[in-house]
């Protein structure tokens, strides 16, 4: 459809027409630009069917090329200008010579797209508007307009008396003043200006919609304004109230996309502070920068992030300025006129390209703060010698490679020196002059190999982390804080970084004022006694060293925090708790302690200890008696020791205990006296032998209980659970049986993790085990929400492949959950377009970044994706592992017992080239090494507003797998910051179960001091030809069993194939005709809940194929369709049918009606083989597989499953897609509110409600392109006979109950598979009995 007569402007379509496709063919320099009208809201509509159904009539699709300029486009559509908006943020007017399509291409190339054809396709994608969007008019933002300028014609009366009459006047609220003017001559006529700062705005109750404005002071004036509507009244009242509440005359116009200030603003002559940060201010025009000297009282001016390019000399005419900020404006020089600003006290020039300063700046005698960080200085400017009031040298991120301390002697006024990130190699002093004025020195992230600061005699605080220091010389008499930990990598196979200090110099012990000492990750073997007995030291961090003993304390010391983890200590000094009475934090995890010192020598103790970490030692239950003296203890971690029990009488003494971790011991029970700990909110006791559920559900503040991997058999519950309980983990308790009443009580828990009771079926014995198995764990730490999500798919793309991922949102949970839901689908789609690992993995990350939509504009997440696949298309080929990651999530492969890192850490602290790239692009890196103070990562999914500093392009690496590969570990930053690669590998090797291993990794990280979210995935691997489990067909005799009651529903048979009815007691799918009603389905499925598995006679077991040599299968691919169904039960309200003696397994029902909303895009169901039914009961009317003309079509049918404890009806032709949903096959079990999920083999079937199902083809979610539902599998006549022979060669699948078998080659001495995983097979039509539908039940988790 043409628009406005332009041949290149068409209305937006859901897809390109033939005309658009023809335009794009053959030339990658051609493309299209979507132009939005000015009335469109700057932000895209929220995802959803309602939002997407509303047409946007003012959207134009303009065909152009990369050489088309803005001027040409404006001439074509008869417009005046074009505007661009990046990441939903500021809107900038484009220059006439700029080329919009080339801008899009450059933006995509900077993201990481390399293929020109793919760039062309992505540029035409409508979802790209969340990243870059063009407007034909400046978009109108009502909220922004309200805060900038309010204007209207209203009835006005001056004064409080009745002498003045009401009259129509032009009323303007701009800046800090109310302007009342004539309607006709609002700018040239007489004006009344009323300053509002410190004044009043009040409601006039005698008149409707009337406000009284009064100025401050003894000569206050008053105006009454009567508004026409309530909306106008509220808008003016809201804005005026903000102005009158200010204590200074401040106008904040930051982030408004302004090119000029409103002209009315110049009438506010009382303005003293003007903030114009993050705009596009121009010099010319009525409101341009050239007019800023009109503000006669202006003291503070912020013009940072305005793309100025040159220093605006007009600013030097505002002689009243005391504060000026010109950061991030690409300035290359400072004009000589800067010397005019004699009142200037603060000058910020960070983030520019300055390499020198004019001598005229030396005349700014009142200047006390000068920001020069992230410029291009190669030396300290000499003009600083004359700026005698400046006390801080802020020059981080420059190019100063050497520092002569003699220079600092001449600058006697400098007390604080910041030279971070300078590539500093030498700090030298040519003479023995003393530098007496410097008290704080920051030399982090440089290249120093030795540091001699002996001449800096009054140094109080020194930061020299992440250097390569071998020697450090200081004068320590005045030293208070020393941070000397560093990041010198010791070897490739370890994530531990350390300094090279083997002993502490004497000057450290001589420091009389030292309060904090950080010497972690060194090579220290002993601590000087004088250091520990210092009378000033309050915090001592000595972890990750080689300490074998700690000296005795000779006298009372003020020590408050002591970290001794990861050393070789066999004992602690007996006087530790007796002399260090102020000690509140003690961490001695990962040592060899067999006991702990007593808290006192008598029954009364003066201990103030609040946090005690004793994890990973050799402590026995005897240590419990020594803990009772620490009655102020709030956190106790004593995991992975040798406790057989915990003294009940001792535990009752710890009444203030809030967090208790007893995991990894040999406990058989937790004392009932735990109920005395009324403040306990966290109990973690996984990986023990506990058989009795502890009495903790009566505690008033309990929030988290983790009793996984134990031996629980039943749970005795009170009548009601505490409302505070948010998470309960009972997985890994194979003997635990939960009654229906118990499940109902658990229904309100936000995060409930339970095992799914597995029922052995014939399909299990027929399916081959996969050569991998996974387990994962997530812990929220001290935060209220879990911001880590895991993706785990053992059967990826219905093939011998796997996909695992972990996503860490740091402080947001939305982006990790979105990536968890969509990234597997995106990978599936990209694998159809390319087989090159670097291409499909990179495009997967970039596409997922785009699909985040508006959520990815301000929020982001680190991400790691692992894809296990065959090296070639040959299914008999060996396996390879392709890993891609952004951010700080990491993957480690254990090969021959040694860690092999597979990922790259994209953080500023760990990646030198990324740090340099970010510095060159002039990002501001704050003192905590974060880009713009937001994130420490240089590569993320999301956070697009930080582009080009933070990019979504991943690191991609492919590693061939071999039989020496034992397991794979995936973890987020919090895990590997505390647990080294080598320790992680040793930890997993010592644990038999992947889930228990993942649990232990997270528990160790917490005990080592981590307070953040922790996520770990452990994947056991059994790769190699020795894993082959192929078996020839054999004949077995099965015992007979009673036949079940027939299902009273028409069943569809296949041609010459008897059918099968599958029991729903184990989640087995039962197939009915589509005419069966939902209520009938619910009733009949419930009636078969307790059926026995029948079999009779002698049956032939078909040839068994392993996952390395799978049989050829045929399967269809169908379009995914959303489905929402409501099922009701008129028999009972407790999940029982009228004929049932026991409830359906896993069903939770809180009423007579179960409502389930399902979005198939986020659900995965697979078919599991079940027991063979009698031919009478399985008489199919029509099977749904036709072969006329060599075609095979599957007719519509209804599949009913007891998945999630409810009856879910799904259209039969959607089953293929439900089986293939890759990313969502990991979203099984009960969905956590924080985005985490429960594994299918580890969870009960629970009812889920899809509250966050994607409903839109753009924005957050876009389902991958799928084949049309009507597509048919067509076999050419020439190949028909060959296909029939291949199908005839396949052995018929006959079901029958048999004991599960585990191939001997898969019985690894380290890794145990208590539940042999089932490998899904596909339907293979052929002669003989009908193939069994094989299913792996996944819960809907949305």
From TrEMBL:
Q: Which GO terms describe its cellular component?
A: cytoplasm; membrane; nucleus
Q: Which residues form the signal peptide?
A: none
UniProt biased composition (Pro residues): 1041-1056
Keyword list, A-Z: Cytoplasm, Hydrolase, Leucine-rich repeat, Manganese, Membrane, Metal-binding, Nucleus, Phosphoprotein, Protein phosphatase, Repeat
Provide the protein's localization. Answer: Cytoplasm; Membrane; Nucleus
Cofactors: Mn(2+)
Which molecular-function annotations from GO does this UniProt entry contain? Answer: metal ion binding; protein serine/threonine phosphatase activity
Q: What's the top EC group for this one?
A: hydrolase
The answer, when asked if Phosphoprotein is one of the entry's keywords, is: yes
Q: Which reaction does this chain catalyze?
A: O-phospho-L-threonyl-[protein] + H2O = L-threonyl-[protein] + phosphate
Q: Report membrane topology.
A: Peripheral membrane protein
What EC number(s) are associated with this protein in UniProt? 3.1.3.16
Q: Where is the PPM-type phosphatase domain?
A: 773-1021
Keyword check for 4Fe-4S, yes or no.
no
Name the residue ranges with Basic and acidic residues bias. 1171-1189
Q: Where is the composition biased (Low complexity)?
A: 1030-1040, 1119-1132
Q: Which spans does this entry mark as compositional bias, Polar residues?
A: 1060-1099, 1288-1305
Q: Where is this region: Disordered?
A: 1030-1104, 1119-1146, 1171-1190, 1281-1331
Role, per record: Protein phosphatase involved in regulation of Akt and PKC signaling. Mediates dephosphorylation in the C-terminal domain hydrophobic motif of members of the AGC Ser/Thr protein kinase family; specifically acts on 'Ser-473' of AKT1, 'Ser-660' of PRKCB isoform beta-II and 'Ser-657' of PRKCA. Akt regulates the balance between cell survival and apoptosis through a cascade that primarily alters the function of transcription factors that regulate pro- and antiapoptotic genes. Dephosphorylation of 'Ser-473' of Akt triggers apoptosis and decreases cell proliferation.
Q: What is this protein called?
A: PH domain leucine-rich repeat-containing protein phosphatase 2
């Amino acid at each position: 459809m043409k628009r406005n007569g332009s041949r290149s402007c068409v209305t937006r379509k859901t897809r390109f027409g033939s005309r658009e496709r023809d335009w794009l063919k053959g030339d990658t320099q051609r493309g299209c630009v979507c132009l939005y009208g000015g009335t469109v809201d700057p932000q895209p509509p929220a995802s959803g069917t309602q939002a997407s159904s509303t047409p946007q009539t003012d959207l134009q699709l303009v065909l152009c090329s990369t050489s088309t300029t803005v001027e040409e486009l404006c001439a074509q559509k008869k417009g005046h200008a074009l505007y661009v908006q990046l990441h939903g943020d500021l809107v900038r007017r484009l220059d006439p010579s700029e080329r919009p399509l080339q801008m899009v291409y450059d933006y995509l190339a900077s993201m990481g797209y390399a293929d020109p054809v793919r760039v062309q396709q992505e540029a035409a994608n409508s979802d790209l508007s969340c990243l870059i969007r063009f407007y034909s008019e400046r978009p109108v933002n009502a909220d922004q307009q309200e805060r900038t300028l309010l204007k209207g014609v209203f009835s006005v009366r001056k004064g409080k008396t009745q002498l003045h009459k009401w009259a129509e006047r032009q009323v303007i609220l701009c800046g800090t003043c109310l302007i009342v003017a004539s309607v006709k001559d609002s700018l040239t006529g007489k004006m009344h200006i009323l300053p509002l700062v410190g004044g009043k705005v009040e409601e006039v109750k005698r008149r409707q919609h009337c406000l009284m404005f009064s100025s401050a002071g003894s000569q206050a004036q008053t105006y009454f304004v009567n508004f026409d509507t309530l909306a106008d009244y509220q808008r003016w009242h809201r804005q005026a109230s903000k102005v009158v509440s200010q204590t200074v005359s401040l106008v904040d116009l930051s982030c408004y996309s302004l090119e000029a200030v409103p002209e009315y603003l110049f009438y506010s002559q009382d303005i003293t502070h003007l903030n114009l940060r993050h705009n596009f201010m121009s010099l010319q025009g009525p409101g341009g920068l050239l007019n800023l000297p009109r503000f006669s009282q202006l003291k503070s001016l912020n013009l940072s992030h305005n793309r100025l390019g040159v220093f605006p000399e007009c600013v030097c005419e505002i002689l009243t300025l005391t504060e000026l900020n010109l950061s991030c404006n690409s300035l290359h020089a400072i004009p000589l006129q800067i010397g005019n600003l004699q009142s200037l006290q603060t000058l910020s020039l960070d983030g520019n390209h300055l390499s020198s300063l004019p001598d005229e700046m030396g005349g700014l005698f009142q200047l006390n703060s000068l920001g020069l960080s992230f410029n291009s200085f190669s030396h300290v400017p000499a003009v600083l010698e004359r700026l005698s009031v400046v006390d801080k040298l802020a020059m981080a991120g420059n190019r100063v490679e050497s520092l002569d301390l003699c220079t600092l002697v001449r600058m006697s006024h400098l007390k604080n020196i910041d030279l971070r990130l300078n590539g500093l190699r030498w700090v030298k002093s040519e003479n023995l002059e003393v530098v007496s004025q410097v008290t704080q020195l920051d030399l982090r992230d440089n290249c120093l190999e030795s540091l001699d600061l002996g001449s800096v005699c009054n140094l109080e605080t020194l930061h020299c982390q992440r250097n390569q220091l071998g020697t450090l010389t200081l004068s320590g008499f005045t030293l208070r804080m020393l941070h000397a930990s560093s990041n010198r990598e010791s070897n490739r196979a370890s994530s531990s970084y350390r300094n090279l200090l083997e002993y502490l110099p004497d000057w450290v012990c001589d420091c009389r004022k030292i309060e904090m000492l950080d010497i972690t990750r060194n090579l220290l073997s002993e601590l000087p006694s004088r250091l520990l007995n210092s009378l000033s030291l309050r915090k001592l961090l000595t972890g990750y060293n080689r300490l074998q003993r700690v000296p005795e304390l000779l006298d009372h010391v003020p020590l408050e925090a002591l970290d001794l983890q990861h050393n070789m200590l066999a004992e602690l000094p007996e006087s530790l708790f007796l002399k260090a009475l102020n000690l509140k934090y003690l961490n001695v995890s990962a040592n060899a302690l067999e006991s702990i010192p007593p808290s006192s020598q008598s029954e009364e103790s003066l201990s103030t200890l609040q946090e005690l970490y004793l994890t990973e030692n050799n402590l026995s239950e005897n240590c419990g008696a020594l803990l009772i003296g620490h009655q102020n203890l709030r956190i106790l971690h004593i995991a992975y020791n040798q406790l057989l029990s915990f003294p009940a009488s001792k535990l009752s003494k710890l009444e203030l205990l809030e967090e208790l971790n007893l995991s990894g011991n040999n406990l058989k029970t937790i004392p009932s006296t735990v109920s005395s700990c009324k403040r306990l909110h966290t109990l973690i006791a996984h990986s023990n032998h506990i058989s009795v559920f502890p009495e903790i559900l009566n505690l008033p503040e309990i929030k988290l209980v983790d009793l996984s991997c134990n031996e629980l058999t039943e749970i005795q519950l009170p009548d009601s659970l505490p409302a505070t309980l948010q998470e309960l983990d009972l997985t890994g308790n194979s003997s635990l049986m939960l009654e229906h009443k118990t499940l109902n009580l658990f229904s309100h828990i936000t995060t409930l993790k339970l095992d799914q009771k597995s029922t052995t079926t014939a399909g299990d014995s027929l399916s081959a085990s996969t050569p991998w198995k996974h387990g994962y764990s997530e812990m929220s730490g001290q935060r209220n929400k879990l911001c880590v999500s895991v993706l785990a798919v053992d059967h990826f793309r219905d093939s011998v492949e796997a996909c695992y991922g972990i996503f860490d949102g740091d402080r947001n949970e939305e982006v990790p959950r979105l990536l968890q839901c969509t990234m597997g689908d995106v990978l599936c789609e990209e694998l159809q377009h390319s087989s090159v690992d670097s291409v499909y993995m990179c495009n997967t990350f970039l596409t997922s970044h785009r699909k985040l939509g508006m959520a990815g504009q301000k929020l982001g997440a680190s991400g790691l994706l692992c894809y296990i696949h065959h090296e070639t298309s040959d299914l008999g080929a060996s396996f390879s592992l392709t890993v891609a990651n952004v951010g700080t999530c990491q993957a480690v492969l254990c090969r021959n017992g040694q860690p092999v890192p597979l990922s790259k850490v994209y953080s500023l602290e760990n990646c030198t080239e990324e740090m340099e790239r970010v510095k060159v692009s002039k990002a501001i890196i704050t003192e905590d090494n974060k880009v713009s103070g937001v994130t420490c990562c240089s590569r993320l999914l999301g956070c697009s507003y930080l582009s080009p500093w933070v990019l979504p392009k991943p690191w991609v690496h492919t590693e061939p797998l071999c039989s020496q590969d034992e397991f794979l570990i995936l973890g987020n930053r919090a895990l590997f910051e505390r647990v080294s690669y080598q320790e992680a590998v040793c930890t997993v090797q010592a644990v038999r179960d992947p889930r228990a291993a993942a649990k232990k990794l997270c528990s160790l990280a917490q005990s080592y001091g981590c307070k953040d979210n922790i996520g770990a995935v452990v994947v056991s691997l059994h790769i190699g030809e020795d894993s082959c489990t192929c078996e020839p067909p054999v004949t077995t005799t099965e015992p007979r069993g009673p036949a079940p009651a027939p299902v009273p529903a028409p069943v569809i048979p296949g041609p010459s194939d008897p059918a099968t009815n599958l029991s729903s007691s184990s989640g087995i799918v039962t197939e009915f005709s589509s005419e069966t009603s939902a209520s009938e389905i619910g009733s009949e499925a419930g009636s078969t809940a307790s059926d026995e598995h029948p079999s009779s006679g002698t049956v032939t077991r078909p040839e068994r194929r392993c996952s390395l040599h799978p049989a050829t299968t045929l399967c269809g691919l169908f379009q995914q369709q959303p489905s929402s169904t409501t099922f009701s039960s008129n028999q009972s309200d407790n999940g029982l049918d009228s004929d049932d003696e026991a409830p359906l397994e896993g069903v939770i029902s809180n009423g007579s009606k179960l409502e389930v909303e399902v979005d198939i895009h986020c659900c995965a169901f697979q078919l599991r083989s079940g027991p063979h039914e009698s031919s009478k009961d399985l008489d199919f009317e029509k099977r749904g597989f036709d072969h006329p003309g060599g075609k095979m079509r599957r007719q519509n049918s209804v599949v009913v499953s007891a998945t999630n404890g409810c009856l879910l009806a799904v259209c039969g032709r959607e089953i293929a897609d439900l089986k293939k949903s890759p990313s969502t096959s990991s979203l099984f079990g009960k969905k956590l509110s924080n985005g985490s999920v429960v594994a299918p083999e580890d969870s009960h079937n629970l009812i889920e409600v899809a509250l966050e199902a994607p409903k839109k083809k753009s924005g957050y979610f876009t389902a991958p392109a799928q084949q049309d539902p009507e597509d048919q599998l067509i076999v050419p006549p020439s190949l028909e006979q060959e296909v029939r022979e291949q199908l005839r060669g396949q052995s018929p699948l006959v079901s029958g109950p048999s004991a599960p078998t585990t191939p001997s080659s898969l019985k690894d001495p380290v890794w145990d598979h208590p539940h042999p995983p089932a490998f899904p097979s596909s339907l293979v039509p052929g002669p003989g009995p009908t193939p069994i539908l094989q299913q792996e039940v996944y819960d809907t988790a949305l």
